[in-house]
Automatic annotation (TrEMBL):
The lineage of its organism: Bacteria, Bacillati, Actinomycetota, Actinomycetes, Pseudonocardiales. Keywords: DNA-binding. It comes from the Bacteria. Residues 9-78 form the HTH merR-type domain. InterPro entries: DNA-bd_dom_put_sf, MerR-type_HTH_dom, MerR_fam. One of its GO terms (molecular function) is DNA binding. SUPFAM superfamilies: Putative DNA-binding domain (SSF46955). It holds the Pfam family MerR_1. Gene3D superfamilies: 1.10.1660.10. The keyword DNA-binding applies. This is Transcriptional regulator, MerR family.
Length: 339
């Protein structure tokens, strides 16, 4: 096939072979004002230049993707360079890909859950939710599970920031995780379990202080240190190393400061010594160990599936959202190594 050049005009038969369109289709698009011929021969035969051929190829692709003539006219109504035409073509293809990913996520969920007709409609609505609608769904969840609890208003705002953020082009896995998360937060049994957990956790006269912005900041700082120590242990850092000893001391200090915030009393030297002994010899304090393990298990039983889905949607490592910190044995050995 001869090379197409910018200054050459081609008869409709050549254009049909180059574009894959039938001659009748090319005539139809001309008659409908979609792509008109560039020129005509003296005998009235239609001729097309390279730009018109490119537009016809785009029309063919758009039609293959299901675009109607009105949509195609909207793309072609202004003069465009070939680069602009390619960009318009890419926008359509990417839009189709996003739609197909959403459909794939719905179909996977239908197959896995054996969904009924009512659920299918709900799943379709979920994957096509706007960012604002997703925010409202999570806001409603946090409002219900914390409503009426004796906690600081700032803590409720802190919880509301724990939400999924779908990227502009989510993967099928992220869409499926969002469907599962939306189903989870809408489930009455899950809401009741979360509400029960918070009622038990904050069944204290000082619940407002324990959920104050200062306490939240202290807790987030402690979580960051715990995550850092967890990563160090996972990377094989020995408890006797300077890095481990420094992390253990930071954990000790952070634990003491959190305890002071919770009790409303400063730590004296004796209490710091007791805390060091508790963390250095956890096996000597089984009651405390069982309490901590029990609280962690209760929290994990309620929230771990939630955070696992959230991590997938937000494309972050699960340990950044859900992490129990380094092992007691690693921290204890590091503290003992530091003397």
């Amino acid at each position: 096939m001869a090379t197409v050049t910018d200054d050459q005009l081609y008869p409709i038969g050549d254009v049909a072979r180059r574009t894959g369109l039938s001659v009748s289709a090319i005539r139809f698009y001309a008659d409908e004002g979609v792509i008109e011929p560039t020129a005509h021969t003296d005998a009235g035969y239609r001729l097309y230049d390279v730009a018109a051929i490119a537009r016809l190829e785009l029309v063919r692709t758009l039609r293959d993707l299901g675009a109607g003539l009105d949509d195609i006219r909207g793309v072609l109504k202004d003069e465009m360079s070939l680069r602009e035409l390619a960009s318009a073509h890419l926008d359509v293809v990417e839009g189709q890909m996003r739609t197909l990913k959403a459909r794939r996520a719905v179909l996977h969920t239908i197959v896995n859950q054996n969904s009924d007709a009512r659920q299918v409609s709900l799943l379709h609505d979920l994957v096509n939710m706007s960012d604002d609608a997703r925010d409202r769904l999570l806001d409603d969840f946090w409002t219900e599970v914390t409503g009426g609890l004796p906690i600081h208003p700032g803590y409720q705002e802190h919880l509301r920031r724990t939400r999924p953020v779908l990227p502009e082009e989510p993967t099928a896995e992220q869409l499926q995780a969002w469907i599962a998360l939306a189903d989870m937060v809408g489930d009455a049994e899950f809401r009741a379990s979360v509400r029960h957990f918070y009622r038990q956790a904050f069944a204290t006269p000082r619940s407002d202080e324990l959920t104050s912005p200062q306490m939240v900041a202290r807790s987030e700082e402690h979580s960051a240190i715990s995550l850092e120590a967890w990563k160090a242990e996972r990377a094989g850092t020995t408890p006797e190393s300077p890095e481990a000893r420094e992390l253990a001391e930071r954990l000790l200090r952070s634990t003491g400061l959190m305890s002071a915030e919770m009790t409303g009393q400063s730590m004296d030297e004796e209490q710091w010594a007791d805390l060091r002994g508790l963390l250095s010899e956890p096996e000597a304090n089984p009651e405390v160990t069982r309490f901590v393990e029990g609280f962690t298990a209760d929290f994990g039983g309620v929230f771990e599936p939630f955070f696992a889905l959230l991590a997938t949607i937000n494309d972050v490592p699960l340990e950044e959202l859900w992490n129990t910190g380094p092992s007691d044995a690693w921290v204890a050995a590091a503290l003992r190594a530091g003397g």
